[in-house]
Amino acid sequence: MFTLREPARTDRVHSSGTEQNGLREALRHIAVRRRAFAGFAALVCVMTVTAYSQGWMPAMFERTWGWAPERYAVVNGIMLLVIGPAAVNLAGWASDALYARGHHDAPLLVVIIGVCILVPTGVLIPLMPTAVWAFVVIAVNTVGIAILSATAPTALLNITPGEIRGQIIALYFIVISVAGLMIGPTAIGLMNDYVFGAAGIRYSAAIVPLAVGLPVMLTIGGTRRAYRAEQASIARQTRAEPTQESHGH
Questions:
Q1: How big, in percent rounded to 5, are the helix, strand and coil portions of the chain?
Q2: What is the DSSP string of 146-203?
Q3: Which residues, in sequence order, are CB contacts of 39 under 8 Å at separation 6+?
Q4: CB 155 within 8 A of CB 39
């Protein structure tokens, strides 16, 4: 990393070059615009909580359908190798296509589409009658997770001034990772222990995406309005048309 040059900062809100660009300023910026940033982070946290909770999938397949963990791992690994890269590229294409049609919040729209895919499929996976049907739904769920995770950083950058992007991206990854790791696997474990028992793991796995996803989905309209307002504010302050960050795909 020491061999890389610092990139030129663009889309600066301040042009004097004298502003402080540390963590305190980033937190202050988020606090003032908390509706847009909190709503956006909540959408992504739905993905991380759901995805990390799927660490229980091998146990669920074994207890529910009698699949050995190694059998699950082989099928799941092949599916991820095929669907994952295709879905990521699909996300970039869809975001660019939406932007070309005049949707300046195109990355956010792809994030929203991802949430609307992964939440219902996350609930349905454990409730399928057979392991084969569960994997069919997992394939669709993987698309939702992949397109959301691929476009979320771009969506965040589009509402972040150039001078504090590093700090805000760092905070973003801390928040979504901690939320996913703490809530997802833990919630299933607690429900297994105190509600459904080991044999009822499928019900624990179904409740987690529903419990975290449904309330956030109800706020999508407000989050999009706040996001678009912040994006327009950034554009006015930088005297530029709202821009689409490159996906590099």
A1: 80, 0, 20
A2: HHHHHHHHHHHHTTS-GGGHHHHHHHHHHHHHHHHHHHHHHHHHHHIIIII-GGGHHH
A3: 219, 222, 223, 226, 227
A4: no
Q: Which class does domain 24-238 fall in? A: mainly alpha
Per-residue model confidence (pLDDT) at position 13: 56
CA pair distance 53, 70, nearest whole angstrom: 19
Residue 122 has pLDDT above 50, yes or no: yes
Helix then strand count (H, E) for the chain reads 9, 0
- 236 burial type by CB count under 10 A (0-12 exposed, 13-18 middle, 19+ buried): exposed
State pLDDT tens for residues 170-194.
999 999 999 999 999 999 999 999 9
The percent of residues above 90 in pLDDT, for the chain, comes to 75
